[in-house]
Amino acid sequence: MRPFLVGQFGNASSIHQEGQLARSAVEQARGRVALLLGCRPSEVVFTSGGTESDNLAVFGSVKSGDYVISSSVEHHAVLHAVERLVDRGVEVTVLPVDGEGVVSAEDVRRALRPNTRLVSVMMANNETGVLQPVEAIGRITREAGVRFHVDAVQAAGKVAIDVEAIGCDLLSISGHKMHGPQGTGALFVRRRTRLEPLFAGGAHERQRRAGTENVAGIVGLGKAAECAMEGLRGGAVERVRELRDRLETGLREFASGVNGGRTARVPNTSNVWFASLDGEALVIGLDLKGLAVSSGAACSSGASEPSHVLRAMGLPIERARASLRFSLHRQTTVEEIDRAIELVATQVVRLRELSAVPQ
């Protein structure tokens, strides 16, 4: 990214030499993202991140009178977008999930109507890491001739993605979820899939996303996609899964269970609950010791309401409030895992002792 931050400031839409240098860098990055997703470079639209990609997929696909199906555990970038569609005359069904947080493909089939325009179901949940049956849903939507959007923000770089195997028409990713720069993302748009742009402006990104390209950010996203491919081929998935399992095993004595732990998950995410504890107090205590964990989605920090994902799974409010999300990455070490176990154990014991003190 450095050359495009400190000296090469050409506009990728300009025909002069500096502009064409920027254009070449953008197209090279587009090719790298396409390899990660298993699509054509021309089907990659660069955006400002997962939220914009999700919004473009949702708002760009439907009009008044259409019908949309989604799930109750989607990221708010999809859920809130779908909620707004109701005000635009769009019918919406939000499907429930089971106790592990999985939506049923057959529920999707049963929910279809003649005017169904879009089905939007995430690939991996951002709080539990639970993987959804997107390939099964993709077969159903293809048979019905319905557009299918997959929010793969939490999956990209953690598990292999093949848009042909999934059978989706639209798929969202975000740079910072796979070691790329924040504020970058992309939307796969299958060839001949028409989208109404969110922004009015120039004809950038094949008239699908107006605005001068963030060349440095796009270059960073492209490099992150390349590194992610190398990691997927080089055993990173297995190594991170082993570390996650080591973490969960080490916490078994102090934790009460793993939310979504009995179904397929991405390898880097663990959502653990600690009975009779306040999750926020545990987050603060661990943060003071240098361990960063979350009690819900990072975008919802400061919210007093318990996780909508855990509540959709049917978990009691007390359990949802006592749950923490641990996120690993390709550079996490065994030593860091063991240190995390030690810190969590110490804080859990301390907080339980404090809660047991008579007032």
Give the count of helical stretches.
14
Poorly predicted sequence stretches spanning 5 or more consecutive residues: none
Q: What is the second-level CATH architecture of the largest domain?
A: 3-Layer(aba) Sandwich
Give me the side-by-side strand order of the main sheet. Answer: 1-7-6-5-4-2-3
Approximately how much beta-strand content do the residues carry? 5-15%
Order of helices and strands: HHEHEHEHEHEHEEHHHEEHHHEH
| CA radius of gyration | 21 Å
How many independent structural domains?
Answer: 2
Biggest pleated sheet = 7 strands, mixed
- Helix/sheet category: alpha/beta
Structure keywords:
359 residues, three-stranded antiparallel beta sheet, 14 helices, Aspartate Aminotransferase, domain 2, Aspartate Aminotransferase, domain 1, alpha/beta
Topology:
Blueprint: H1 2-6, H2 17-37, E1 44-47, H3 50-59, E2 67-71, H4 76-86, E3 91-95, H5 105-111, E4 116-120, H6 134-144, E5 147-151, H7 163-166, E6 170-174, E7 185-189, H8 204-207, H9 215-233, H10 236-251, E8 257-258, E9 269-273, H11 279-288, H12 308-312, H13 317-321, E10 323-327, H14 334-356
Parallel strand pairs: 2-3, 2-4, 4-5, 5-6
Antiparallel strand pairs: 1-7, 6-7, 8-9, 9-10
Textual characterization of the structure:
- The chain has 359 residues and is α/β, with parallel strands linked by helices.
- The chain has two domains: 2-232, 3-Layer(aba) Sandwich (Aspartate Aminotransferase, domain 2), CATH 3.40.640.10; 235-356, Alpha-Beta Complex (Aspartate Aminotransferase, domain 1), CATH 3.90.1150.
- It contains 14 helices and ten strands.
- It has helices at residues 2-6, 17-37, 50-59, 76-86, 105-111, 134-144, 163-166, 204-207, 215-233, 236-251, 279-288, 308-312, 317-321, 334-356, and strands at residues 44-47, 67-71, 91-95, 116-120, 147-151, 170-174, 185-189, 257-258, 269-273, 323-327.
- The strands form two sheets. The chain has a seven-stranded mixed beta sheet with strand order 1-7-6-5-4-2-3, sandwiched between helices. A three-stranded antiparallel beta sheet has the order 8-9-10.
- The longest helix is centred in the C-terminal third of the chain and has 23 residues, at 334-356.
